[in-house]
Amino acid sequence: MKTNPGRFFEDYRIGDVIRHAVPRTVSGGERALYHALYPARHALYSSDRFAQSCGLPASPLDDLIAFHVVFGKTVPDVSLNAVANLGYAEGRWLKPVWPGDTLRSESEVIGLKENSNGKSGNVYVRTRGLNQHDEVVLDYVRWVMVRKNRLDAPAPDPVVPELKKSLSASDLVIPEGLDFSDYDDALAGEPHRWGDYEIGEKIDHVDGVTIEEAEHMIATRLWQNTAKVHFDATFREDGRRLIYGGHVISMARALSFNGLANAQMIVALNGGAHANPCFAGDTVKAWSEVLDRADTPAPGVGAIRLRLVAVKQGAAPFALKGEDGKYAPEVLLDLDYWALMPK
Amino acid sequence: MKTNPGRFFEDYRIGDVIRHAVPRTVSGGERALYHALYPARHALYSSDRFAQSCGLPASPLDDLIAFHVVFGKTVPDVSLNAVANLGYAEGRWLKPVWPGDTLRSESEVIGLKENSNGKSGNVYVRTRGLNQHDEVVLDYVRWVMVRKNRLDAPAPDPVVPELKKSLSASDLVIPEGLDFSDYDDALAGEPHRWGDYEIGEKIDHVDGVTIEEAEHMIATRLWQNTAKVHFDATFREDGRRLIYGGHVISMARALSFNGLANAQMIVALNGGAHANPCFAGDTVKAWSEVLDRADTPAPGVGAIRLRLVAVKQGAAPFALKGEDGKYAPEVLLDLDYWALMPK
Amino acid sequence: MKTNPGRFFEDYRIGDVIRHAVPRTVSGGERALYHALYPARHALYSSDRFAQSCGLPASPLDDLIAFHVVFGKTVPDVSLNAVANLGYAEGRWLKPVWPGDTLRSESEVIGLKENSNGKSGNVYVRTRGLNQHDEVVLDYVRWVMVRKNRLDAPAPDPVVPELKKSLSASDLVIPEGLDFSDYDDALAGEPHRWGDYEIGEKIDHVDGVTIEEAEHMIATRLWQNTAKVHFDATFREDGRRLIYGGHVISMARALSFNGLANAQMIVALNGGAHANPCFAGDTVKAWSEVLDRADTPAPGVGAIRLRLVAVKQGAAPFALKGEDGKYAPEVLLDLDYWALMPK
């Protein structure tokens, strides 16, 4: 067999570091496509001049481009035989990614726990994205449930890593030079600043986007994530292509511009759940909740912790979970992240 | 409310200058996408070497990329609560836009006239697109009918600007250095030059493109035009997404290559009407009429004034208006512009 | 008539050299789009750093981008009135194409043979793609059946060029500097090297992609191939848009990554047949057969000759031809090419 069968649960060992394939040089082409696929308008990622007025040398690529590129490379090694994507934790953006950078990914196995049915188990990896200078630009923990291939393979000693429920403000890394002292609200598209958002406040982002098959496939391929469930309509019994969860993340984040245009930079991912699958024809909308606020040492820069929820058509206002504690069927995504905002 | 409610008729004042949000740095990525979304083939915008043989330092971005980027930024401030896009006038391209340029837009309110029903009014703005050197690259007048929010707001003194029905040849700005003396017809794809087109001549551009939802949404987002009517299939009662009028402009202009490949640069927009809405599934075709010709002081360069009409399936040959003076239902666009052509 | 009617069979003369229109400067934008439209992951075309570790100055644009750009320009002059694309031969990639290069095409008529029905004939052209230094980056022979317009035009003396059934290893041009001595299997995504593939071995590439209208039109336009049969749903009697054969070539080549990730560079095209038409909604899969292997003088570099077959849903395993020698109806493409692989 010359094709890649993927790894099964019994193929992982604690401490293994997997160097993922296909490094990628990114350019203005990836940025243009990102802005064509999502209604992305955060000014720092759109204009070199705006970014320079915020102390950066130029406009970096969107944070989620970095995330998707790094994540996409892990799919053949981590989730080809996964039955469920269970969670994210301790994600941090450590360096901006610039046009011309070359990214690669590696993942360390940090947890393993076989399920009681003996047919699958949970695999925890810490994934790092590195640039051409071997600097870590992003790292995060992800855990997935992976099938066993040889059911008689012995269960490993269970190791479940202790993960922070949320990163604290002191964990956040502020990009070198970032300075919001001369921030231009008009060009950013939003008069509300860090001090105007209250913990507990919820924002309905109002706009909606109906998703087409061509769009989510173009986006997902752009990140070299080629899991067949996203592309092959003959693969699932129901003949439907499952939309890459990251597509919903980017769509919701872009929609959140309307009300959170000043939540410019994503610096941490505390957690996230893909609550229900998304399919072409769904109309995605988003709402946010302010979970926390914290000051930072950078001039004019505050940190805001946000819950970002993506829902589809038919969702009740601010839909999240039912009385049973389960996500409402119209909820697609529940994401918890830190962003940087002008004070 | 943190989200942008848009401006209503009573929010505009004569003389107001609105600085629109989200400046944008453009690159080869935007150009590649433009050429992927439209059958654009004008050689000056395709090849650095061809552009250099015409006296320019490199191939600029397509004129309509500049238009769409500048226009897209105005939507949240000008047309979010518009009920109709009424017209364009006095549009001029003043500087080429190059990869690496950063564009922003601002609009001055130059006219206001409340409708007799007291529920809406016409707003006239002169929009300017500026580059990172604060040079105006494009300006045009646009007027839209905007809803009132507070119906009891007093009507402003009516001001209707005097607008030229057409710019004259002396108004046109020729890009610095442009020289068609060594123009290569074979590489341009067209043997017919300025002198071969007669006033009154009509050209059927023959080719047609059937439009898909994914394509018009990708294009419209690329210009950061996020008006929900283009994206959210649940927004309109009929469940259909309205295609951004600029998508039809670009499609028709690109189709006009077949017969007008030498109408290289658009330098002025005299007027335009989006005659009927366009929806996914429509097959767009185009025809042109030569309205005028004028000489220019640039070597080898003539100016040609063209009517560009986009129609959909079922249109009669050279369809335009019925005997009642109304546009035929298959007519999508009626545009009046000046272009530069080799003599 | 100002529009291009295309050439008919009687318009070609042996020895004519047609300079095709619309030169094109390519950038990172074209690369990003290519990776968004196809599941392309060959590391040499994805990462500057990986390409540098293989002795190249940077990552070139995918070989098939060069092919499509060069081919697209020939359509208005060669195949606008073609009734069938009959074959390819003697294709060679002679120079890598880099972001920033400007490509143009020219074709020499090397064969003509009228059909016995007097209504059409076969035209053979040798097409060259040239860069801004007037270096040939690609050349290949293609022959098509073209309609006659004036049925009474006399038949030319038949000339059928002698074409090699396959290029031999000594015909292959290895890019200057290419060196696979320090090749990194993990980053390339494939442990199998040149010595691991046996002549006659067949590889099922497993993955499948269901094709959407928007995607094949975006791709085809990107190469400035505007043949209406690909874009206008009202053109064919059955209301279906025919997918550009090159879209299937790129899709199949990208799918072959899974099993042939180390077949990095395409250096020759020995032949190819578009066995059956492809339409939106089809799910494309691919398989390969090793036809030959040869050593090369470049350090660590072997050559492998591959048959690449694209099939659609319903195809039997390794489907090719029936007992009657005809292609099975699910076979879309049968391509014969040479690639370079680490030894």
UniProtKB/TrEMBL annotation, chains A, B, C:
GO molecular function: lyase activity
InterPro entries, per database record: HotDog_dom_sf, MC_hydratase, MCH/BMMD, Thiol_ester_hydratase_Rv0216
Classification via SUPFAM superfamilies: Thioesterase/thiol ester dehydrase-isomerase (SSF54637)
PANTHER family: BETA-METHYLMALYL-COA DEHYDRATASE (PTHR43664:SF1), MONOAMINE OXIDASE-RELATED (PTHR43664)
Name of the protein: Mesaconyl-CoA hydratase
Organism for this UniProt entry: Gemmobacter aquaticus
Gene behind the chain: mch
